[in-house]
Amino acid sequence: IVNYNSGETIKDCLASLVKEKVKIIVVDNNSPDDSIEEVKRNYGKRVIYIENHTNLGFAKAANQGIMKALNEGASAILLLNPDTLPTKNFLQSLIRSKADIAAPIIKFKLRGKWLYDHGGKINWVLGRTTHVETESSSPVKEKIDYVSGCAMMVKRKVFEKIGFFDE
Questions:
Q1: What pTM was estimated for this model as a whole?
Q2: Residue 21 above 80 pLDDT?
Q3: Of 45, 133, 158, 165, which residue is least crowded by CB atoms under 10 Å?
């Protein structure tokens, strides 16, 4: 989880993750708020911390966390935004997936209406992307070209093959 001024939202996110019994890494990008101190106060040694002395941006901070996870022996890495609220046991389906990159369906509110983001499609001719959003959490039948970056599990072999995020 890359943190920058996440306030209360990161604590809510972590509350759901600590129940999953996984290693959690939080990379703080020199947040001026007290969010990292709050996380330390509430989660102490249950979280591995990387604290940057400047805001390095998402990609570089995410790469720091990924490298740490790989060095700790992770076979897969969950990249998760600090404002997400994972549901109970959401990791099980991601872990069981045969895909090298897997993501849950993301529930979000837009203009007062609940929607579900299933990932997206790429128009390879125009180079444009479109999210596949529905009013139902039922999986879509069409092929998805990409998943939402707010929550995605990436297997170790992907990073070993293609490298890390472009910083």
A1: 0.91
A2: no
A3: 45
